[in-house]
């Protein structure tokens, strides 16, 4: 049976820092995926994920194991991504949207080059549409579907009610579906 995140953090707080490696292995890939989606750049997303993990380790003594580690982690990531986004906007840098799974897709020998190209094109389309949503809706979708958080966890990470988190996801999905149909030329 897997050790809970909260128990691993207790171990880290007690000085057994190797337990933190388990948390890093557990969360780094999904942190990167969400950060890349939010920031639109693979390198910036990896940096944000790394900064998040460093911030968690640095603040390990402030973590209260009675509360959800996942919520704490995602709150930190969203905050750091927002800071990075502001820095990026103020310096007028425009990064291209990079699919966080392109490397995985092209590494799969069973997948043809056409399959990888189609997957990348669909991912780029999704990323473009997400960037056009209001930030609270886009973040709620990223947390719910890219990070796999429950509505309770999304609400806690975004400092909203559960009902508010559900509404953000619902309205975000509606807008996303409409925007994707428009981008694909299905709707005028």
Care to describe what's here?
By secondary structure, the protein is mainly alpha-helical. It folds into 2 domains: 1-96, Orthogonal Bundle (Rna Polymerase Sigma Factor, Chain: A), CATH 1.10.1740.10; 111-188, Winged helix-like DNA-binding domain superfamily/Winged helix DNA-binding domain (Arc Repressor Mutant, subunit A). It is 73% helix and 0% strand. The protein is built from 9 helices and no strands. The chain has helices spanning 5-13, 18-39, 42-58, 69-90, 102-107, 113-132, 135-146, 151-157, 162-183. Helix 4 packs across helix 8 and helix 7 crosses helix 9. Residues 92-110 have low confidence and may be disordered.
According to DSSP, the number of beta strands is 0
Number of helices: 9
Oligomer description = single chain
CATH-derived architecture of the largest domain: Orthogonal Bundle
Q: How far apart lie the N and C ends?
A: 52 Å
Mean pLDDT over the full residue set: 82
pLDDT < 50 stretches: 92-110
Shape verdict: globular
The fraction of residues in strands falls at under 5%
Q: How helix-rich are the residues, as a percent range?
A: over 70%
Radius of gyration: 18 Å
Helix/strand/pairing class, anyone? mainly alpha
Look at the structure and give the CATH class of the largest domain.
Answer: Mainly Alpha
Q: How many structural domains does the protein architecture include?
A: 2
Which H/E pattern describes the elements?
Answer: HHHHHHHHH
Q: What would CATH call the homologous superfamily of the largest domain?
A: RNA polymerase sigma factor, region 2, helix turn helix motif
